[in-house]
Each structure stands twice: as C-alpha cells, then as structure tokens.
C-alpha cells in the first residue's frame, strides 16, 4: 500500500462514477499507470478533511488490511494545509464489480429470489467481517492482544461490495466505506476529554449514517449494533427490498417461506430490538458455520 506522498499522476481517470454526494466529493474508476490495474478512487468532502474524519477513516482501513472481507486499501493522500487553503485527499481501493444493493435491484427487477447458498455466503462473510472488527486476528474467540475494537456503524447493501474471484462459485463479499466508523479507543478518548472539559470539541464523525439501516439504539452504539445492521442487510436480500420498512422486521421475515427456518431464525437473532438480546459476533460466526453446513448436507 502506497502512502502520501505519491505523484497524483500515477492514477488516470477511466470514468466518473459519482459526483458530489452526501459523504463524498466524487468517486472515480481509475487505472494505475504503473501496473495497469483498475481501482476505485474516492475523494472526501472538505469538512471530512478539516475535521480529521478522513484521516480517521484511513487509519481504520489501514488497521483492517489483510482480511479477505475488508476492502483493500491501495493508496491514499491527505492534504490539509490551512495556509494555502487546501483540504483534500483521496483513497484508492481495489475495484469491485458491484454491491449488494445492485444484487437486490437486479433480483427485484427480474422477480428472482436470491439463492439460499448465496445468502449463507453473504451472512458468513458479514459475520466474519464484524468478528474481525471486534476481535482482530485471534482464532480462539478471544480479542487479539492490543487489538482496538472497531465499529463500522453504516453496514448497508450499498457499502457491501462484490469482488469477483476466479474459479469461485460466489463473489468475495467485501465491507467498505468506513466514513462512519470509529473505535473503542477513540470513543474512550473522547469521553475522557469531555469529562475534563464539557465544552471541549473532540474529534467527531461527520459522515451521515444511513438512517434506514440504523439500529434502534442509534445514535448510541455498542458491539451488537453492527450485528443488527447485518440483520437488516440480510432482510433486504431475502425480501428483495433495497430499503427496509420501519419497525420490527422479524414478523415479516418469518412470512417469507422461500428460505429455510434456520436462515430466518439466525437473521432474526441479529434483529432483536434490544442489543442485549441480539446474538454476538462470535456466536453468529459459529451458528452460521453450523447452519450453512446443515443446508449443504440437506441440499
């Protein structure tokens, strides 16, 4: 992964994907003029640079590199110079072929239910991603020594990407867009700052969380909040809806007999209204392994 400074001319624009939006100045499809690779280039809003939010996003992505379900960071630049009034930057990541949002739209347009094997693959990948956010690279169910627990806070179909894998039946499921993310250490630091000085202005999150996928406890969050968002993403995949209705999703989920009871029960365990009633990340990984294995055997 290259870091600032690197000549900006290294990446040549192929196509502009998104002009200025809610959380980004622009998003481009680019080509690396050195190795010919195709990547995605995201430019932040000025406020995200000046507030430190963009640097926080880069720091979090850097810490999460190496996991197959985390978006691969290729290069970044940050220019925050008040003397010359320049507040800009870029994040260059691996190129993905689409998102779960695209998959839902395609399924709804053709009225074709997403296959249950693919749903198990999605659920397994999201569970592994959140487990890694919380526990790091520790295989024994304990948090890795020195690992800083992370919270994504904005898991939704448009932030979960599909990366094609040659020879594999399903694409690699990749979690991206960490603009709303934070860490336990950062939140504890902010709390200590406010205790010492209630009028202080500690670092804050400027990117807007998608309200349709926010957990009931929002804007507060804990280690079960990302689990709830996994449940909502899975609900949308199962119901072929890009956005969920408001309120309790569990009753409507169980009216969908397209999928096995094991799948519906596990997604329901993610959607419990109270955080303390939701399944944990570690439990979810274990239950998905059992459920996916049983489904494969029965199939």
UniProtKB/TrEMBL annotation:
E.C. number(s) listed in UniProt:
2.7.11.1
> Which GO CC annotations does the UniProt entry carry?
nucleus
> Single GO molecular-function term?
ATP binding
Alphabetically sorted, this entry's keywords are: ATP-binding, Kinase, Nucleotide-binding, Serine/threonine-protein kinase, Transferase
Catalyzed chemical reaction(s)? L-seryl-[protein] + ATP = O-phospho-L-seryl-[protein] + ADP + H(+); L-threonyl-[protein] + ATP = O-phospho-L-threonyl-[protein] + ADP + H(+)
Pfam families, per this entry?
A: Pkinase (PF00069)
Q: Which residues form the Protein kinase domain?
A: 1-290
Q: What class of enzyme is it?
A: transferase
Subunit architecture: Component of the EKC/KEOPS complex composed of at least BUD32, CGI121, GON7, KAE1 and PCC1; the whole complex dimerizes.
Q: What does this protein do?
A: Component of the EKC/KEOPS complex that is required for the formation of a threonylcarbamoyl group on adenosine at position 37 (t(6)A37) in tRNAs that read codons beginning with adenine. The complex is probably involved in the transfer of the threonylcarbamoyl moiety of threonylcarbamoyl-AMP (TC-AMP) to the N6 group of A37. BUD32 has ATPase activity in the context of the EKC/KEOPS complex and likely plays a supporting role to the catalytic subunit KAE1. The EKC/KEOPS complex also promotes both telomere uncapping and telomere elongation.
Q: Supply the name of the protein.
A: EKC/KEOPS complex subunit BUD32
